């Protein structure tokens, strides 16, 4: 059995360059980022009627209102679990059609785990409010945490995991921007004053629209790269 050494000149550098290009190409071909974003955008936008129809609102004379968003509790856990399952299935199917493997399962498992976390936090908060009368607004940090553990916040956390798995700088930057919109929250001056039952709609429509626009952008970028 014999071995051959690779020349240390231009051939070695060319081989290294070709290996890097091949690795980058495989990573690009493994990505179906637009599909993940479109599924999550659909889940967000379809959830709006559920949130509206099952919203229980109790306003006191002092101007404070208690919200019981049962639609969030009944809709989001099963839909998010289904969404992550669909994304994982489609990723694997597309990767296999291209003769590649898929690194999507950690993303799907993270999404499922975050969904369970959301459900536990939501039930815990409902139990707390059932035994405690809150007659003052919550501090800003509590509201920020509340938006983070809400479905639209946890979607951003899961997308950070997908960006890491794909080593996708574009998805990372998009997700950071999405989290700013979802957590701050940024409503672009869209307010519906005096409409307590619909005051959540602008933010949720914006969240879903951002995800949808991201899906369109990554689909167009992916088509150019291929």
Summarize this structure as a short list of keywords or feature phrases:
226 residues; mainly alpha; two-stranded antiparallel ribbon; disordered N terminus
In short, what is this structure?
With 226 residues, the chain is mostly helical. It has helices spanning 10-30, 33-53, 70-97, 105-131, 140-149, 151-166, 169-183, 201-225; strands at 55-59, 65-69.
Explained architecture:
This protein has 226 residues and is mainly α. Helix content is 72%, strand content 4%. The chain has one domain. The protein has helices spanning 10-30, 33-53, 70-97, 105-131, 140-149, 151-166, 169-183, 201-225, and strands at 55-59, 65-69. A two-stranded antiparallel ribbon has the order 1-2. The longest helix is centred in the middle third of the chain and has 28 residues, at 70-97.
**Count of domain modules:** 1
Question: How much helicity do the residues have?
Answer: over 70%
Distance between the termini: 41 Å
SSE string, helices as H and strands as E:
HHEEHHHHHH
- What's the average pLDDT? 76
Shape: elongated
The biggest beta sheet is recorded as: 2 strands, antiparallel
**Helix tally?**
8
* Structural category: mainly alpha
């Amino acid at each position: 059995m014999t071995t051959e050494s690779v020349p240390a000149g231009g051939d070695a550098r060319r081989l290294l360059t070709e290996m890097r290009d091949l690795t980058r190409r495989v990573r690009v071909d493994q990505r179906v980022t637009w599909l993940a974003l479109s599924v999550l955008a659909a889940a967000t936008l379809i959830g709006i009627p559920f949130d509206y129809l099952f919203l229980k609102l109790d306003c006191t004379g002092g101007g404070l209102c208690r919200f019981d968003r049962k639609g969030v509790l009944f809709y989001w856990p099963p839909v998010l679990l289904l969404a992550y399952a669909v994304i994982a299935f489609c990723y694997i199917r597309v990767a296999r059609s291209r003769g590649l493997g898929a690194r999507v399962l950690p993303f799907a498992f993270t999404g499922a785990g975050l969904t369970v976390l959301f459900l536990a936090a939501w039930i815990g908060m409902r139990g707390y409010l059932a035994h405690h009368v809150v007659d003052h607004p919550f501090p800003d940090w509590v509201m920020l945490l509340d938006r983070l553990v809400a479905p639209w916040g946890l979607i951003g956390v899961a997308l950070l995991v997908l960006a890491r798995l794909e080593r996708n700088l574009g998805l990372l930057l998009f997700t950071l921007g999405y989290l700013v919109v979802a957590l701050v929250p940024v409503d672009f001056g869209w307010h519906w004053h005096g409409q307590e039952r619909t005051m959540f709609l602008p933010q949720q429509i914006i969240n879903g629209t951002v995800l949808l626009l991201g899906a369109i952008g990554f689909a167009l970028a992916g088509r150019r790269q291929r």
